[in-house]
Amino acid sequence: MPQTQTASIQNTEIDRPQCPDCQAAMWLACVSRDGVGKEYRKFECPVCEVSTRRANEIAGPTIQF
């Protein structure tokens, strides 16, 4: 079962994309890692509920839970 973790970064440090439909700032809803150097961030729009996912390269070792 996935574990929930609290991030130590502030919301101002996260690159929040604009919603492609209504242009509102999207919220970070979920972060997951694939174990081979990629981190996936799911963003959701608080206005129209559209969601999008972005992949980011991560540095350092990946920790498996």
Question: Mind explaining what this structure looks like?
Answer:
The mean pLDDT is 80. The protein is mainly beta. The protein has no helices and 3 strands. The protein has strands at residues 27-33, 38-44, 51-57.
Topology:
Elements: E1 27-33, E2 38-44, E3 51-57
Antiparallel strand pairs: 1-2, 2-3
Task: Give the tags.
65 residues, mainly beta, 3-stranded antiparallel β-sheet, elongated
Short description:
Helix content is 0%, strand content 32%.
Q: Give me the Rg, rounded.
A: 13 Å
Assign a percent range to the helix content.
Answer: under 10%
**How would you spell out the order of helices and strands?**
EEE
Secondary-structure-derived class: mainly beta
Strand order of the largest sheet: 1-2-3
Mean pLDDT: 80
Low-confidence stretches: none
Largest sheet: 3 strands, antiparallel
Give me the count of strands: 3
Distinct helical segment count: 0
